[in-house]
């Protein structure tokens, strides 16, 4: 959403409340049943403006080990200093500049959706598990091990031996 900061810039308001919804970026294997809620405010601190937001979104994914559905909520904070293009040119010239500390207001308007989407992708769990000690699936029949014994006889095969075995078979064929 494009936020109109002109009343703040004109000094008519000390702060601007932010409350809107953002469509999360598409992520493979993840369903977002609802859009992300973005709440917080932009405050004028005489001389500079700061933005402090929270983003909250429910998701449904699948367990990396047993493929069971995993429901969760992602919530993270997003804080930045608001600068205009001139201010950005100045700060980006300094040695300790970090572009992730700023958002740029252009002609009084601020659009942070792309940066919020990027933050959401970075904050999202790298791997989802239905529970920390999920035992995964039986490699033979595919039944979740958490559901009990399937009766399959599974031998742990060391991949190095498999390669050796193949090499030996090759030798025999010569
Ligand atoms: Zn699992
Ligand atoms: Zn099995």
Write a structural description.
This protein has 174 residues and is α+β, with helices and mostly antiparallel strands. It has two domains: 2-134, no CATH class; 136-174, no CATH class. Helices cover 21% and strands 33% of the residues. A five-stranded mixed beta sheet has the order 2-3-4-5-6. Strands 1-7 form a two-stranded antiparallel ribbon. Bound molecules: zinc ion (ZN) (2 copies). The site of one zinc ion has 7 residues, from loops.
Tell me the number of structural domains.
Answer: 2
- The assigned structural class equals alpha+beta
* Total of helices: 4
Beta-strand content estimate? 25-35%
Low-confidence stretches: none
What are the key terms here?
7 strands; five-stranded mixed β-sheet; about 170 residues; alpha+beta; 4 helices; about 20% helix; binds zinc ion; two-stranded antiparallel sheet
Please render the helix and strand layout as text.
Layout lengths: L1 E3 L1 H4 L5 E8 L13 E9 L4 E14 L6 E16 H7 L10 E4 L3 E3 L1 H11 L35 H15 L1
Parallel strand pairs: 5-6
Antiparallel strand pairs: 1-7, 2-3, 3-4, 4-5
The structure holds zinc ion (2 copies).
The site of one zinc ion has 7 residues, from loops.
Brief rundown of the structure:
With 174 residues, the protein is α+β, with helices and mostly antiparallel strands. It is built from 4 helices and 7 strands; from the N terminus they run E-H-E-E-E-E-H-E-E-H-H.
């Amino acid at each position: 959403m494009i936020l109109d900061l002109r009343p703040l810039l004109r000094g008519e308001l000390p702060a601007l409340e932010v409350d809107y919804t953002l469509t999360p970026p598409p992520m493979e294997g993840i369903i977002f049943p609802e859009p992300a809620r973005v709440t917080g405010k932009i405050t004028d601190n005489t001389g500079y403006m700061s933005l402090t937001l929270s983003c909250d979104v429910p998701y449904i994914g699948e367990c990396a080990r047993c493929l069971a559905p995993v429901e969760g909520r992602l919530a993270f904070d997003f804080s930045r200093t608001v600068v205009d293009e001139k201010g950005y040119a100045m700060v980006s010239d300094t040695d300790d500049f970090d572009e992730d500390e700023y958002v740029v207001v252009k002609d009084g308007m601020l659009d942070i959706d792309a940066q919020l989407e990027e933050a959401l992708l970075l904050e999202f769990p790298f791997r989802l598990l239905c529970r920390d000690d999920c035992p995964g699936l039986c490699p033979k029949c595919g039944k979740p091990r958490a559901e009990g014994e399937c009766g399959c006889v599974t031998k742990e095969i060391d991949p190095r031996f498999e390669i050796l075995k193949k090499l030996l078979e090759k030798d025999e064929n010569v």
